[in-house]
Predict the structure.
Amino acid sequence: MRRVFVLLCLGILCSCAGAHRAGQAVDSSSILYIQGVVESVSKNEVVLRLQLPEFKKADTAVQELAHRVVEKCMVLEGIRTEMNGEPAVVRETRGSSVSLQLEQPFGGAAGSLVRLKVPKKTIAVVDFEVIRGREKDAGRVTLEGLTTALIDSGHFTVVERTKLQAVLTEIGLSMTGLTKETPDKVVGNLLMADLLLTGTLAQQGMVWDTNLRIVNVRTGQAMAAISTQMKMSALSDIRDTGALDEDFEGNTISSSWLTGHRARGAFRVTHDTTSGADSSSRSFRMDYDLQVIPREEMFARIANMLKRDLSLYSGIEFSVKASASSTGALRMLTSDHEDANTIDAWGGTFEIGPEWKKVRIPFSEMVVLRGWIKRGAQSYGAKPGKQILDLSRVESIEVGVPKQHNPVLKGSMWLDKVRFYSE
């Protein structure tokens, strides 16, 4: 009787697993093992037919790309894994068929149901190239979003090769003896990647052709390829999650910073190459005359228009000065997930003087700008939203001088050392 009961339970479990595979999509991060059926056995060599899982549909185009990468990297040739807890090496993969080399002879027979472990791989994601298209930042932004999605998937240890120069700078600093860590504890501990993920983006009308290659670092062999198309709207909705640390010291400035004459000449933003904060040589300068525009809510500003996800950061800090003492303001526009044309404005104020001053504004202390609700959104052709601060949907960051409450309506303001911080 007990034997019948055990067999009945096993039958129920197997039928449930089959139903799960057939009709229920799963999160990629939940996949630790894949079931397989033994097709043939020859001493230490086993050929399996894997029952590959079906992933849930992703919310964004970049998350869908990450799903494809996880799917392609589930079981790769040459990786070490385990079958029913026994060490094994993947010798060959063809679709859902996998040939394994075990350390010990397999004791089962053809038709046996086994469990194959999905090993965690170390992957390096390198710069994506835009080979055709006007949005040159699309490659970098896609790279940042895909890197985050791969980390969140749980299937990869991601090494930041795009941040290698910063790592080398830290190692160089340790060699000077100015840090607590000694050089012998820092040098030589970079993690070697198993896989390299690279790709290209090419604009085709209203879509982007995306081509990815997964390369075995040790052999140089292209292990897998992914080719897909993403709608332009989906790509433009990708948010930059990277840190901002802008000192304006370079010869060129990112096009996300708006320069030149704005608001019918009410203010002009330029790259000042004569002075900066902390004895540096460069900064951003804004010359303004708020009397040009009669509107009371006029706001002369230095603006960065890169779409961002700032949910990992606590606030923003920057250095600022002005030709005359006045009240400055930070304004941040955020949009709604369901309607990008539904926008809220958030702000904070600070005092500016003729000497450089560091300003730090926590995002949690920013308040809804009531003037935006009444008139500002309309001037942008937008609708005011739910007045809930969503840091994952930042549309722009602006630092400037508001006409309201400022007796001095003509002058200059300088901005430098802009960065996000986390606490």
In short: The chain has seven helices and 23 strands. Residues 176 and 183 are 9 Å apart (CA to CA).
